[in-house]
Design a protein that fits this description.
Blueprint (H helix, E strand, L loop, with lengths): L7 H9 L3 H7 L1 E5 L1 H9 L4 E7 L3 H11 L2 E5 L1 H7 L8 E6 L10 E5 L5 H13 L5 E3 L9 H6 L9 E3 L3 H6 L5 E4 L5 E2 L10 E5 L8 H6 L2 E4 L11 H16 L4
Parallel strand pairs: 2-3, 5-6, 5-10, 6-7, 8-10, 8-11, 9-11
Antiparallel strand pairs: 1-4, 2-4
Helix pairs in contact: 6-10
C-alpha cells in the first residue's frame, strides 16, 4: 500500500467536515489523534481514509499501512487545514457515522442536555467505563460527531452506544426498570435507596441548570450525592461517575 497526495478537492471536502452541516450532509466526521484512531481501528469503526502529516510519517507509517485504509500524506499547511488542534499529533482519519446496537446492561444513562462538547465526550467515556447499555442525550445536546466530543471521549465513542431522544418524558415513563433522578438537593443518599429494579435508568440534567422538575417528578426515585466539603455540587461528568459506581457495584442494580 502506497501513500498518496490528497487532491485539492479532497482537502476541501475533508476540511468542510469541521462544520456540523457538512458532517450531516455527508455522513462523515473527523477522527484526530493517536489514541482515538487506534481505538477506532480496534473497534473496527468505519474509516474511509487516513491522513498523516509528512513530519510525523515515520511515527505512524506502520500503523496506517497495517490498517489497510486509503492512506494520504499532507504537508504542514494542508494538514493544518484539516486539524482542529493547536498542537496536533499529525494523524487523523475520515470516519463514517455509525450507530452501535444497545448492549445488555443493568444500567443506562439519560442526560437532559449537555451542551459542552468536552463534557459530552467525557460522558461517553464514563458511560463506556461502567458498561452502560446506552447514553441517551436530550434535545439541544452537543453533536456527538463534533471533533471535541470525539477527542474528549478518548475513543469511547467507538464502543459506547448512544442516541439522541426528543421526548425524554415519554422515554422515562416507558422505561421497564427503576428510574433515578440525580438532583443537587432534596434527594435520598444513593446508598440508602434499595429496591431498585434492573435495568436502572440514571437521569441527569443540564451542566449548570440541573434536572428539570418535570423530568425529576417522572422518575421513581430521587438521589443526591452527600458531600463532606463546602462545594455545593460536582460537575456533570464527575457526578455521573459517582452515581454509576454506586449503581454498578452490586448494591443497587441487582435485577
Amino acid at each position: 500500500m502506497e501513500f498518496s497526495e490528497p487532491s485539492r478537492a479532497q482537502l476541501s471536502l475533508w476540511a468542510s467536515l469541521k462544520q456540523k452541516k457538512y458532517r450531516k450532509q455527508r455522513g462523515q466526521f473527523l477522527i484526530e489523534g493517536d489514541i482515538c484512531i487506534r481505538e477506532a481501528l480496534k473497534a473496527k469503526a468505519p474509516i474511509e481514509a487516513m491522513v498523516v502529516s509528512r513530519e510525523h510519517l515515520a511515527r505512524f507509517e506502520s500503523l496506517v499501512r497495517s490498517s489497510g485504509k486509503d492512506a494520504f500524506t499532507a504537508n504542514a499547511r494542508d494538514f493544518a487545514r484539516l486539524s482542529s488542534v493547536e498542537n496536533s499529533q499529525g494523524i487523523l482519519a475520515i470516519g463514517k457515522v455509525f450507530q452501535l446496537p444497545v448492549r445488555k446492561s443493568d444500567v443506562a444513562v439519560l442526560v437532559e442536555q449537555v451542551t459542552d462538547p468536552g463534557n459530552c465526550g467525557t460522558l461517553l467515556r464514563t458511560a463506556a467505563f461502567f458498561g452502560a447499555s446506552a447514553l441517551i442525550l436530550g434535545k439541544g445536546s452537543a453533536e456527538v460527531w463534533n471533533g471535541k466530543v470525539v477527542r474528549g471521549s478518548m475513543g469511547a465513542i467507538f464502543r459506547q452506544p448512544f442516541r439522541q431522544e426528543k421526548n425524554l418524558l415519554e422515554f422515562i415513563k416507558s422505561w421497564k426498570g427503576s428510574t433515578v433522578a440525580a438532583v443537587a438537593h432534596g434527594g435520598h443518599p444513593l446508598q440508602t435507596i434499595k429496591k431498585l429494579r434492573s435495568p436502572v435508568l440514571l437521569v441527569l440534567g443540564h451542566e449548570t441548570r440541573g434536572l428539570s422538575e418535570e423530568l425529576a417528578q417522572t422518575c421513581s426515585h430521587r438521589a443526591t450525592l452527600q458531600g463532606r466539603g463546602g462545594a455545593e455540587s460536582l460537575n456533570l461528568a464527575t457526578a455521573t461517575a459517582v452515581f454509576l459506581y454506586e449503581i454498578t457495584r452490586g448494591k443497587i442494580a441487582g435485577g
